[in-house]
Amino acid sequence: MINKVVSGADEAISDIENGNTLMLGGFGLCGIPENCITALVKKGVKDLTCISNNAGVDDFGIGLMLQQRQVKKMISSYVGENAEFERQLLSGELEVELIPQGTLATRCMASGYGMPAIFTPAGVGTEVAEGKEVRNFNGKDYLMEYAFDADFAIVKAWKGDTAGNLIFRSTSRNFNPVMAMAGKITIAEVEELVEAGELDPDHIHTPGVFVHRIFQGAGYEKRIEQRTVRTKN
Amino acid sequence: MINKVVSGADEAISDIENGNTLMLGGFGLCGIPENCITALVKKGVKDLTCISNNAGVDDFGIGLMLQQRQVKKMISSYVGENAEFERQLLSGELEVELIPQGTLATRCMASGYGMPAIFTPAGVGTEVAEGKEVRNFNGKDYLMEYAFDADFAIVKAWKGDTAGNLIFRSTSRNFNPVMAMAGKITIAEVEELVEAGELDPDHIHTPGVFVHRIFQGAGYEKRIEQRTVRTKN
Amino acid sequence: MLDKDGIAKRIAKEIKDGFYVNLGIGIPTLVANYIPEGINVVLQSENGLLGMGPFPFEGEEDADLINAGKQTITTLPGSSIFDSALSFGMIRSQKIDLTILGAMEVSENGDIANWKIPGKMVKGMGGAMDLVASAKNIIVAMQHVNKAGESKLLPKCTLPLTGVNCIKKIVTELAVLDVLPGGGFQLIERAPGVSVDYIRQATTGKLFAEDNVPEMIFD
Amino acid sequence: MLDKDGIAKRIAKEIKDGFYVNLGIGIPTLVANYIPEGINVVLQSENGLLGMGPFPFEGEEDADLINAGKQTITTLPGSSIFDSALSFGMIRSQKIDLTILGAMEVSENGDIANWKIPGKMVKGMGGAMDLVASAKNIIVAMQHVNKAGESKLLPKCTLPLTGVNCIKKIVTELAVLDVLPGGGFQLIERAPGVSVDYIRQATTGKLFAEDNVPEMIFD
């Protein structure tokens, strides 16, 4: 089996350069590649285009990269939880492209499936449709949306093996598997890295062929954005 | 949770009518819905259009339906293992539409994903492209292929629960998950049916929302088409 | 006049046994609390879950298990987890029977605006555009008028649209209204103690009302 | 002149460490037996498996575990299973480094015909059209001439095509040939004891040969 293991986040992201386009997995702060984000901040790489459903919060997730002015453009579906983001956007330092969440996910998937474009009804008749090809199938209008083209996809999984196979846990799966399929280079950080053969082939969410580099991350904070609970009575 | 359990194959297929279009999961004889095929033969429903990667062998799988002249048209990628099939085809009793295997799978997937059409390079410049829209993306030609529209999808899984969630085993997965997503009505037969809550939500291959009827099948033969072995020395 | 829970309670009556339902943020989330006994419903959360349960007990929160509002939640027996593409795949292929979401404006022909106010910081549409473009049955839960006292049921939306010709039903603190296929709002029920005239004054879009519009009944 | 195993053995030398490889039915399947020691390769089977291993020991066959030729097989440590759509997804997005398959005809410009003979029962193209349309690197394993003694390396295919402009390399019992980007077959190596003239006679398409075409070397 082909071994994809690298020493850690610094090595994994070492060839990411100024101006690259990155996909970053996660939904809110759930399932984000914490170790790689820390390494990107340390490396100080700039002018990045980041494709990620959200932009983190002020002091966590992609928010840490925004603090360092490393992001030129965000491509997201929702960016509401971040004051620094708002400041940079209003001052013109940051560009943002808002995309319907399903369109975002499906444009990632299209890339992984080698499909140059897909059709979705999301955004028909709205400003999202401006400049896009509209096509009618069976009486319903659809927008043609293109597959993403990202230099790197950076994802976080629960378990992985040395062959690059990934298993995600609960709703931290979210965008991670579709982005893992879509990077020219895909980097996966995992909470637990095991030897090839230890994962059940039937349980693997992302086959290793899509993953180029893998390492076991450390010190996961896994911060909760909205702690909602009920009380036992 | 919504309960999808029916008593068995006869009830599951009871409303399939002459002239319906059926998707049938499986690759060769691997992962085919044996119980439903038996029930379809018993019911004697005719003039079916069957979307299935293969057409079974003379005395098993879809071959049993061919014997009874129940199939009007096969939509498949490879139909080479069946002498009765050949006889009916040459005599004009049976219509066949051959489709590249990846196109077949992706047209099923497109249906499940609510995408009316997809683009694939498979078949460009060949007779498969005849009458189809060709479109160039980034210097490469693609065919536009439409999502399938099937009245029923009939799949076989290893385990399932009362909520319709499915788990497949090894390469008997094949076309089953993509077809399960694509039927107007999806029928799943499983080797083992368990209560909702017994399957790990992270291990489910087909979420129950796609499955309308489920039952535990009986007497699986699971015939091997090409028994290839090596000897210990 | 209903409070938020009243609106949620009235909407819950629209949910039928066997429905898969997607609930938006705000009032729609409250609907889960009022689903009638004996009605089996599966809640979808578009970040990748079918079978969403209530909030966890204190101390049992799991950072890996959240809903589309980023709240910690639980799963119910029979739940399943999937990625974002499959989640919107099942939305697009209309496997979700009912979508309930909030709105800033709804027009006579079923257009909805709920994501952007010109001049204000835009947070994004999230999954709302996908949901309204695909769902076969959409109910809007909202206040009848905005904070400035202006009707949110309009001849034409003034805000940037989220989707067109998609809203079928609206439940507000004043009324239940259907959007007519040919355009216009059909008054179906009045909130307890609210008159047709009152509703008419609060509705800028074309309102159709029969002679005896019943009051809502809560069990 | 090589036998089938010789062709497979020669093709195996084209496989590099870290390659994901799809092997077609027939001679390509034999290639797996000759992958050099120390070369890590993952075999894909398009019915939904990465990490295909050898045939099972007698009595250990599993009806649920087959390859694209419907043969019982095994998995190796690190293997993964997926559905048919994802399998062709990874093929289409060029994650598979090398595809090796048989052919009835190959033309000077890299067209391939391998699925249909007019007048004969057509069995279908299976996954061949997807593979040749997407793979970044395709090697054809075939006999240089057909049973009637006619060349299978042609100016233009006479049989219905499987794919166009896609074949990069051909290995036959006589030779290794590259398909030139501008058209034509470049003779790269001769099988042991086979002359350039012999190869030229067996090749109807345009053949380019340098002065000293080397013989194949097997370790």
Automatic annotation (TrEMBL), chains A, B:
<dbReference type="GO" id="GO:0008410">
    <property type="term" value="F:CoA-transferase activity"/>
</dbReference>
<dbReference type="InterPro" id="IPR012792">
    <property type="entry name" value="3-oxoacid_CoA-transf_A"/>
</dbReference>
<dbReference type="Pfam" id="PF01144">
    <property type="entry name" value="CoA_trans"/>
</dbReference>
<keyword id="KW-0808">Transferase</keyword>
<dbReference type="InterPro" id="IPR004165">
    <property type="entry name" value="CoA_trans_fam_I"/>
</dbReference>
<dbReference type="InterPro" id="IPR037171">
    <property type="entry name" value="NagB/RpiA_transferase-like"/>
</dbReference>
<protein>
    <submittedName>
        <fullName>Succinyl-CoA--3-ketoacid-CoA transferase</fullName>
    </submittedName>
</protein>
<comment type="similarity">
    <text>Belongs to the 3-oxoacid CoA-transferase subunit A family.</text>
</comment>
<dbReference type="InterPro" id="IPR004163">
    <property type="entry name" value="CoA_transf_BS"/>
</dbReference>
